[in-house]
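Posted in: Protein Modeling Q&A

I'm a second-year student putting together a small comparison for a lab meeting, and my supervisor asked me to include a predicted structure for LysR family transcriptional regulator. I've never done this before, so apologies if this is the wrong subforum. The sequence is pasted below exactly as I got it from our records. If anyone can share the structure token output, I'd also love a short note on what stands out.
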Amino acid sequence: MHVPMHRVHEPPAEVDLSGINLNLMVALEALLQEAHVTRAAARVGLTQSAMSHALAQLRELLGDALLIRGRGGMVLTPRAEQLVAPLRRGLAELRRALRHEPPFEPATASRRFTVATRDYFGSVLLPGALELLGREAPGVDLSVLHVESSTYPALLETGEADLVVVTPPVESGPGLRQQKLFTEDFVCVVRKDHPTVRRTLDLDTYLKLSHVLISPRGDGVGAVDVALEKRGLPPRRIAVRVPYFLIAPLVVSRSDHILTAPRRLIATFSEAYALQVFTPPLPVRPFDIFQVWHDRFDADPAHQWLRGLVARAVNAGSESTQSSRRVRRAPAS
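Accepted answer (user: helix_wrangler)
Welcome! Here is the predicted structure, written out as tokens:
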């Protein structure tokens, strides 16, 4: 699409909101997300010519081109990139404020919550949460997003996620609240017919084995490596790095590798994958799991119920995991 040359004016020091059509802000949100006039028009139900006219008005209002032609199509100007997050937050808040919602009653509610987490936490939380939802709130749906520690504050701030379940470091950014859900420790697993590991797992055998490391970014070291270095022990051989928690038990079940992983994860898969479970032959520091939410939802009854449901799902998982604590103890090293 041809973008005509236009004059760019300096924006006023203060924007007079009384003279701005709110539909322009909706159009701007679509333009910034799509970076394409035709797709933005379709997104909000306008014709292409109407969206082109809206873009011209926005350029005049904001004193910036907003979208310019690049090699692969239209690209956002630096000013437009600065507008993406605050505009999305502002419109999301306005939509929530204008939306009429009856008092939240779980048994009769019909709505969707979005929880952002990683695959391990999902495997720990989801079964119990879905069981509780089925009993208490059959009309409530749940969406799960994958999250990185660097992105979840923005997800909560914009309302794209209602709740985040993460492990430290937890950023105590502005407007964020958090609650510790549980402390997780580690166990070691090998396949049940492993040629070397039988009924016990000592430190010498542990160090001679090849290891699987769960590494979301494919690099770095794990809690075991930190523990080995702290005790002045030689590094282990990491034969396989996998990006997802749920892959690791399957890899171990079909190889001679050993895996040191969160207890609750292994409790979920130890029987299905025929795994032997052992206490680690050296102390490995446990870690804490938190749920995090935005302050503006702190007193909201629906979100309070959601946080309570997640906490109860964790407690239900704790009870079902107690049997997994009856693992074989490693002899003293």
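A couple of things worth pointing out for your meeting: The longest helix spans residues 78-98. The domain at 17-98 is CATH 1.10.10.10 (Arc Repressor Mutant, subunit A).
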